[in-house]
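User: Hi! I have a protein structure encoded as tokens and I'd like to know what sequence might fold into it. I'm fairly new to this, so please keep things simple.
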């Protein structure tokens, strides 16, 4: 059977970072496979790149195991709808987000639809159980962290390192010199529930720091999928003059130091050579469950990549305003700790580059579609 001249590709990106990275893949697919239709779940970035976004990831954003349980009926409806799309697809491209995507991979395999997984689930954090599912249901894996290549090859998965999108696809500015950096950045997360949970803690830490260091400015990087009113309500009672900004990159790039909830923003901060403190709290139940499942000693992606706790991590009971403020204060001065952290960050761009990014992912997609139609 000859390949359809205008293939249908189903893409599933369930979070803000996945949507942001996948948008470059959508753009590349439109060049590599002119006329291809890309549809499924993503967000504004993929929609702007030309994808038919049937389901917006913000409508399925939850925190922790309890959030997933509360949203089960909604997720079940989403999964049924995504399966109907896969029934008519020539290729399925899941992007991270393993809870839903691994089940959809199994469904695609059963329907004879090839699977190209972009941005691996963090199997190195959650243990090897998911590797068996991936080997059984994924045709090709495009990874963005170099150490993941060996993990998949050893397990018999067809894998290729394509470079991290922050280095290969996104246009991050060059790091700015210390004398141009004039504020402390606060990044409390990307989802509504996460911001509501973390921002009050971050504001309390900023207040504590401001009483000890005169003249500080603070900027909050607002998530594009969280309404600005959420931030206004959560910061209404503080005596700080907090600035709200909608673009995390310039907020981080011009920051003297940053307070970041665990996530991909920790890597953004490091690539911009902005010293950071990582802080995160969740419900006692979610934390207890995570402690049983997570197999690595670090929370922040930047520390995972560097192999040690370069950026301080204050998690759960340790994430107290005074402790966070003390950690930030040590990074504001031109200290040995600050210089050592920045020196370690400088190795990351070379470590994460070297691939062709979204263009290579699009080529891999075309190869799988062509193989199916041959």
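Assistant: Happy to help. Inverse folding works backwards from shape to sequence: for each of the 374 positions I chose a residue that suits the local structure. Here it is:
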């Amino acid at each position: 059977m000859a390949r359809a001249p205008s293939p249908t590709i189903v893409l599933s990106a369930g979070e803000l970072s996945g949507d942001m990275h996948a948008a470059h893949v959508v753009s590349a697919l439109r060049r590599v496979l002119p006329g291809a239709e890309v549809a499924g779940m993503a967000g504004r970035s993929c929609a702007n790149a030309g994808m038919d976004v049937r389901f917006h990831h913000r409508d399925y954003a939850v925190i922790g195991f309890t959030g997933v349980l509360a949203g089960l009926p909604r997720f079940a409806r989403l999964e049924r709808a995504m399966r109907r799309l896969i029934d008519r697809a020539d290729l399925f491209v899941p992007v991270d987000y393993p809870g839903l995507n691994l089940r959809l991979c199994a469904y695609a395999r059963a329907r004879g639809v090839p699977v190209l997984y972009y941005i691996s689930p963090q199997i190195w954090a959650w243990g090897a159980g998911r590797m068996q599912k991936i080997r059984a249901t994924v045709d090709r894996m495009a990874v963005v962290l170099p150490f993941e290549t060996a993990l998949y090859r050893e397990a018999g998965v067809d894998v290729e390192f394509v470079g991290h999108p922050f280095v290969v696809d996104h246009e991050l500015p060059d790091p700015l010199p210390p004398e141009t950096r004039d504020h402390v950045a606060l990044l409390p997360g990307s989802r509504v529930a996460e911001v509501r949970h973390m921002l009050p803690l971050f504001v309390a830490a900023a207040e504590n720091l401001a009483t000890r260091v005169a003249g500080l400015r603070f900027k909050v990087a607002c998530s594009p999928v969280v309404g600005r009113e959420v931030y206004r309500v959560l910061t209404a009672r503080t005596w700080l003059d907090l600035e709200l900004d909608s673009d995390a990159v310039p907020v981080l790039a011009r920051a003297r130091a940053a307070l970041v909830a665990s996530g991909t923003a920790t890597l953004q901060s490091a690539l911009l050579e902005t010293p950071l403190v990582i802080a995160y709290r969740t419900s006692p139940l979610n934390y207890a469950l995570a402690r049983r499942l997570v197999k690595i000693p670090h929370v922040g992606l930047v520390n995972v990549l560097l192999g040690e706790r370069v950026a301080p991590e204050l998690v759960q009971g340790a994430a107290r305003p005074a402790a966070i403020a003390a950690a930030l204060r040590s990074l504001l001065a031109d200290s040995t700790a600050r210089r050592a952290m920045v020196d370690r960050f400088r190795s990351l761009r070379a470590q994460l580059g070297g691939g062709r990014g979204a263009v290579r992912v699009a080529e891999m997609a075309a190869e799988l579609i062509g193989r199916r139609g041959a």
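A useful reference point when you look it over: The mean pLDDT is 91. Feel free to ask if any position seems puzzling.
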